[in-house]
Amino acid sequence: VANRLESFKSKIKDTVLFVGSLNERKGLVETLEIFKNIIDFIPKEVVFVIIGDGELKYKIEKFIQKNPNLKTRIILKGRITNSDKLNEFFNRSLISISMNQAGLSVLHSFANGVPFLTLENSISGGEKWNIINNTNGYLCANNTEFKDKLLYYINNPQICIQMGENAYEYYNNKATPELMVTNFLKSFQYFNHVSS
Questions:
Q1: How far does Cα 103 stand from its chain's mean position?
Q2: Most buried by CB count within 10 Å: which residue of 26, 32, 65, 140?
């Protein structure tokens, strides 16, 4: 991950962040409903920032239009590939979320010191198994638990900051690309040796 930052040191934490393609399988429509249902129970400065592009963009825009009270609370930024620009959003993030898919965005969040919230049964290439409940994020059993945890974490920024620091350290010690390559090579050498 280019230009990593220790976002847990940031003084301003007012964002729930989603970074990824905007498609149905990610559960964004359900996530928007959850955010709508907790809006009156979270600090007024907290916003949900959605970074990405895809087929769901217009559905999200319509959702915001139908819920005028969310117009300043749900911010659709479009696709951002510049790491410095992305870092501006990670820096303000309490937590990154993606209900139904937890792929490389988990590691991207961890690399920048931001915890991650998703469902236990989310689609993943294995990245979600880096999440340790209440340490660097949370794997929720269902949508209700997801809503409850999101509400809890937003209202307890110090916990998010600590989990962000834990996520950053976890990434440094267990999930950098260099470590993954090293572990892959060790596994390959082990199995190659065993089979000969």
A1: 10
A2: 26
